[in-house]
Design a protein that fits this description.
With 128 residues, the chain is α+β, with helices and mostly antiparallel strands. The chain has a domain of 82 residues. Helix content is 30%, strand content 23%. It contains 4 helices and 7 strands, in the order ββββααβαββα. Strands 3-2-5 form a 3-stranded antiparallel beta sheet, with no helix packed on it. It has a two-stranded antiparallel ribbon with strand order 1-4. A hairpin with a 5-residue loop joins strand 2 and strand 3.
Length: 128
Amino acid sequence: MAGYKYIGKRIYYLKVDGRVVLDTGEAEGWVNPTTSEDDWRIYSELQKYNKTEVDYIELQFGEFKTEFAECTSYRVNPNTKELEFDYTPVPEPPEVPQTPTVHERLDALEQVNAEQDMLIMEMSGLMV
């Protein structure tokens, strides 16, 4: 019977520029480790590429935990096979314009209608 295990992540990246195409994540518990060949069968992300275009690095369980938690992106330097973390803040997305509710539109129309009624009465000389 297999014992309790801590399995680190495997990071697959493009050899040409170091862009990460798959991070297998970590596993803990009564789990079985996978091989690179298993990963190519399991993950559709890898199947989009030719095996000659992709390489990988393996990390120990918990390795770079803080860096992964704090970075906004990361890549693998294809020359050194070292991780490079980026901490550039991600800009906030623009606010999605909100469509006024039916009640808000009705209130606005009633306000405009009341103002127009006042103008008509003023112009008719009905108001002093």
